[in-house]
Write a structure and sequence with these properties.
The chain has about 270 residues and is mainly alpha-helical. It is built from 13 helices and no strands. Helix 5 runs antiparallel to helix 11 and helix 6 packs across helix 9. The chain starts with a helix and ends with a helix.
């Protein structure tokens, strides 16, 4: 468990001893060795939210078709079309979003670097103003400005974070897109598998939607619980939220399908 996660848990429990242990010099130094964990966790949010959207949107399609009393073949056709179409759309959105954000950040960094090189006095004045607002005065303020502006990379990094409020994104846009797409497919295939499996089991063929609903509901709760890894909320709360949101979306789709089933076949 990372030092940050230990600190979060200590705060949740209001455990002063655990919080103190998470802030010792040894723990802070050890954290630098564990930075690879952060690298692996960068794409966790893409996976969790991709799976969440996949299962909710696909089950909504299944519910709508079931409400319209259409055949399992149509469930499969529409479900797969939604799964691949929406999955690709989400992946493309994740790619473009990450790429656009990084392009913006890169452009701002280049501008700050150009200003540091061509207007150093003006940029020093900005650093001084930033740290003066933080409460630095006199020799402390002079020293802070001197330290920051003595290294160009540190200077630019300070301007990015303190002036522009930009924390630069280190994700690979393509990897984020692929993670989203694969997670969307894995989550979204569950309602279809549940529906088709029930349709082929003797005694369950007349209860395909009910069986698929139970399987999907349990999966939605599980995927929602996994969101606690990203949101740092209680797992049962995020699981219940996901279950309720997914159920509401499916209920709306089912009612729309039920209301329109006569006109669809007309």
């Amino acid at each position: 468990m990372s030092r940050l996660e230990k600190a979060r848990q200590a705060h949740e429990r209001q455990d002063l001893a655990a919080a103190r242990a998470a802030h010792t010099p040894e723990a802070i130094r050890r954290e630098a060795v564990e930075e690879h964990e952060e690298e692996r966790g960068k794409y966790l949010s893409d996976a969790v939210y991709g799976a969440s959207d996949g299962i909710v949107t696909t089950f909504a399609v299944v519910a709508g078709v079931a409400g319209a009393a259409l055949s399992p073949a149509i469930v499969l056709i529409l479900g797969m079309a939604n799964l691949l179409g929406d999955g690709f759309s989400m992946a493309a959105g994740a790619y473009l979003s990450n790429r656009s954000e990084q392009d913006y950040q890169r452009k701002e960094r280049e501008r700050e670097l150009w200003e540091v090189e061509h207007f150093p006095e003006g940029e020093k004045a900005e650093v001084r103003e930033i740290y003066a607002r933080k409460g630095f005065t006199g020799k402390d303020l002079d020293r802070a400005v001197e330290i920051i502006t003595s290294d160009r990379e540190r200077w630019v990094e300070t301007m990015m974070q303190e002036e522009l409020q930009i924390i630069e994104e280190r994700k690979d846009p393509l990897r984020a897109a692929l993670t989203t797409f694969v997670a969307f497919l894995i989550g979204g295939i569950i309602p279809l598998i549940g529906y088709l499996a029930a349709a082929r089991v003797p005694g369950l063929a007349s209860h395909t939607f009910a069986v698929a609903s139970v399987v999907t509901g349990l999966t939605m709760f599980g995927v929602g619980a996994a969101r606690s890894l990203v949101t740092h909320k209680a797992w049962w709360r995020t699981g219940l939220e996901m279950f309720l949101v997914g159920s509401l979306a499916a209920a709306v789709a089912y009612l729309v399908g039920f209301a329109l089933k006569g006109t669809v076949l007309a």
